[in-house]
Amino acid sequence: MANEHALSVWRKSKNLSQEEFGERVGVSRWMINRIENGERRPSWDLVDRIRTETRGKVTANDFAAERVA
What's the predicted TM-score (pTM) here? Predict the structure, then answer.
């Protein structure tokens, strides 16, 4: 799991499904799945909602180094 996204690690540590986390930040399960797989990048607004929901454990830096296919 060395390549697992920080969001996925945090979400799983809280026993939240992608659907539950998506509801908390206002997006679909599909979008959370794509973000965690590096297929989509969140908007700045969504990054801020993710940062707030994770209490700063997942930040913009966690999305910066990814390559979107």
Answer: 0.88
